[in-house]
Amino acid sequence: MLCCETKYTLANKVLYTITWKERRAEWMVSSERSASGAVNEFLKKTNRKKSQISGVHVFGFDIKILHQLRIEQPRELSTDKITIDKRKRPLNEIQSLSQQNKRYASFGRDAYKKVKNLILKHRMVSESEEPICIRSMELENGNNIINIKYNSLLDLTRLDAYVRVCDETLLSRDGYRRLATIEARLIREYQVAHRRIEITKLINNQINIGTFNLDKGLDQQSILDDNDEPQGNPDGIIVDEQEVGNGVYRSVRTLLQTLIPIWNKSVPPILQSGDTINLKLSGDGRNVGHKQNHVMLTFCLLNEKDEVLKPDYQYW
Question: Which terminus in the chain has less CB density within 10 A, N or C?
C-alpha cells in the first residue's frame, strides 16, 4: 500500500511524504523541494531508478477541481490589484453637477460590465438560459442618493399608474418633482408629464371635447346681489372666445360607444344583450371665480343601481 501526504512545516514549506509497506517493514521518504522529488526518492529506495513517474500524478494534484483552482488562483491574484487612475480628481473636489453625473455614468458602465461577468460566472440565468438583468444601482454620497438606471425602456403600465395616482390625489407637478428629489427611484416628473399629454391626446381622439359660445347677452348678464356693484374681469384674464369658446361639450353618443363595451365586459356584466339603457342627466354648479361660475352636465347609468351614488360613476 502506498500513501502520499503533504504537511506544512514550521518554515512555511510543504513536506511531501510517501510511506509504503514491504512485508512487515514500513518505509518512508520525504522531500521539501517538490512532489516529484519525493517520488524520485521512492524510486531509488525501491531500485527503480530508470522509471519516470510524475509527482503531480502520484500525489493527485491533477484532479480536475485542484487543477481548476490552480488556474483560477493567479487570475484572482491579478484582479485583486487595483489600478487607480490618478488623472481623475476625487469626487468631492468636483463642483460641477454635470461633471459629477459624467463620473457616475462612467462608473456605472464599468460596474455593469463587471457585474454582467459575475452573473455569467455564477450562472444567474432563467429557465430559458437567459441571464438576469440589472435594472438599477443605488449609491449614497453623503445626504445624496444617486440612482443609476440601466433599463431606459419605461413600462407604460407603470407609467400610467403614476399618472393616475397624481391625478386622483391632486398632486401637482411641483409637488411630485420635490418628492422625486427625495426618492431617487421614482420616475422623473417630465416623463410623467409627457405621458399625461399622450393620454390626453388619446382620449381626445376617441372622445373629442368640443367648444362653443353661449349667447353673449345671457353670458354677460351680471349675477349680483342687491348691494353688489358690477365687476369686470377681476382676474385680468384675456380670453379669445373665437378660439377657446365659453363652453365645452362631449358627445353622449361617442361616450356610449366607449362605455358600452366596458359595461358588457365587466364582472358581473352591467349590460346584457337586449337590456334597455337608462340614463339620467344632471348638473352641478361650481364657483370658479369672483362672480363667475359654470355648470357641468353629467349623466349616469341607472342600470348600475346604487353605484351611481359614487362620483366615479358620474360621466361627463
Answer: N
